[in-house]
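Running this now, will post back.
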Amino acid sequence: MYDAVIVGGGAVGCAVARWLSRYRLRICLVERSEDVCTGTSKANSAICHAGFDAPIGSAKARFNVAGSQMMEALSRQLDFPYRRCGALVLCFDEADVPRLEELKARGERNGVEGLAVLDREALRRQEPRVAPEAVAALYAPTSAIICPFGMTIALAENAAANGCEFRFNTEVQRIRRQDDHFLLETAQGVLESRVVISAAGVYGDTLHNQLCETKLTIVPRRGEYCLLDRRDGELVQHTIFQLPSAMGKGVLVSPTVHGNLLVGPDAVRVEGDNTACTAAGLAFVSAAARRSVPSIRFGESIRNFAGVRANVDTGDFVIGEAEGAPGFIDLAGMKSPGLSSAPAVAKEVTKILKAHGDLPAAKTDYRDGRTRVRFKECSPEEKARLIAEDPAYGRVVCRCETITEGEILNALREEIPATTIDGVKRRCGAGMGRCQGGFCGPRVLELISKTLGISPLDVLQDKAGTNVLLCETKQEENHHD
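Update: finished.
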């Protein structure tokens, strides 16, 4: 019997796992996919939002601002990329300038610091490449960019180092109450737990509705993105938004912590976790982005991708113990600013458990923090020392990103080891550059096969069924003989 089972291995679920691993609890995180961070948390805008646009008094406002204030210290503790670059919200019509003032006032009520409305000249001094039609902008200096998968994996690894169990390929098919605990019927058998914390993304309503009379409805919306090469990574210095609409924050243009330029997303209703990119969606994204920054060169795009956001019918985050289901905690509707809010939401879960008397004493041997080798960022002296200790650091496998064999082997040996090519990519960056793994992919596959002791034919790109190599059948082999 577990004290708590967390359903969902995205940013919110892994943040909860880390916070609960501080206490003397037997906890487990179950994830339907092969790894943490395979859904919305790996395919988003990579922004730690300041919190100026969330409705005053909403859960989004509360947790966004609190989470944003925690993020920089968390990035240092867990060694994932974070950069406070600030954000600009563009206005293209003098008649809309009062809306910028309204956003500023709302942000200040939410607790966001440093907000200012810039006129045309001040805006040009900040960002000379924005469209000349932009007449003003709201400046939010506390907005930041992060590595979303770096953050999520770091949270998960810290939780695992402190005793949290992780079960992958373990979809929860049914949940029901039995006496004083829950039974979770999964693809890998039945789990029992006193508390269940649902951070299941677009499937959060499915679990909730099996237990509760008051139903939730989650409407998935897909957002498509273009990732541009490092050649355009310094086209803008801030995250560039346009005035938000009822559909969300709209199409942004932003630098990334890895030196690229990110553009997107649109917002299209889909069924389930449909992440297929479309010509229409990408055309919309490129046209909207050029309204903000006309000089974007989409010919420099190295990858298109899409993520699905969990839009709940309440319009706000759903955080708390579900009515009529004591011990079942909803963390639903965690679309933007869900990534920014994750650390604060995790702390809220501990408060809920403490109020119920379900939070034991904190561990005295809790291990906080972690560090990772990023060879290309090391000084010449550090590089020499690493190579002397392990010659694998002297062999560059991914030329685009200068990722060494030593870093790839680390990714395959961590607390939650990568088991797929995309898992390696998210952990150390191999395959993330201009050629998108065209050069290093075969070597990464070989290292996965040797390190994990599996056949090259069984190495996956990501989820089940994405085998990179296929073998001829015996009949075909005999025919060739």
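The chain has a mean pLDDT of 95. More later if anyone needs it.
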